[in-house]
Amino acid sequence: MKIQETLHKNSCTLAAMTERGIREIHDSKVLAAMSHPLRRRLLDVLKVNGPSTVSALAEKTGQAVGNISHHLKMLAASELVEEAPELARDRRERWWRRTSDGFKWSVSDFRDDPVGEAAESLALEHQVAIARAWLANWQSYAPEWEEASFDSNAWAWLTPAELGEIKDQITALISGWANRELPDDGQEREPVFLFARGMPGKP
């Protein structure tokens, strides 16, 4: 299959995924399935690059094909990914895609469930790991990427409602950029990881 044809199929599938919206997770088994570090990375790769074959995912992550297949099946069992047979060139080739554009859950739904606490901790570790990777490799990027990257933080006196308002504003801002239709302007773009957190704390 030509690269152009693959990109076209991927773009069409990604458009369909965007329409599926955000999946709300209330089942701790689903949360546990997506919390595994490699599975979380597979979900990220499928989000950033679109549908992919098992062999391509193995090459991207440096894992054995059999290991990738195992974890994809675990994700599929929780309906986090699904096969995309229409993209296969033959019966041996297996393509996979995400079943939704994003995921969200509330800690309150898992207040007495250790899986919820573990998932939140692993999510934070995942975010920090990406930030650390940038700090370790920023010199491999063009200077303008260093100038554009940012770390913004502050202390503020807030009510729960005010913190919720900030959450809604930031979530809408990030979602708007993440789910926009990419402009056909010839500009070269890199995957950029955006995340923000706000919670009560003490200096």
Automatic annotation (TrEMBL):
Task: Give the source's domain of life in one word.
Answer: Bacteria
GO MF, one annotated term = DNA binding
Segments traversing the membrane: none
Q: Name the Gene3D superfamilies for this protein.
A: Winged helix-like DNA-binding domain superfamily/Winged helix DNA-binding domain (1.10.10.10)
| Pfam families xrefs | HTH_20 (PF12840)
Q: Where is the HTH arsR-type domain?
A: 29-124
Q: What's in the keyword line of the UniProt record?
A: DNA-binding, Transcription, Transcription regulation
Under CDD domains, the record lists:
HTH_ARSR (cd00090)
Question: Know the name of this protein?
Answer: DNA-binding transcriptional regulator, ArsR family
Species of provenance: Amycolatopsis xylanica
Lineage of the organism: Bacteria, Bacillati, Actinomycetota, Actinomycetes, Pseudonocardiales
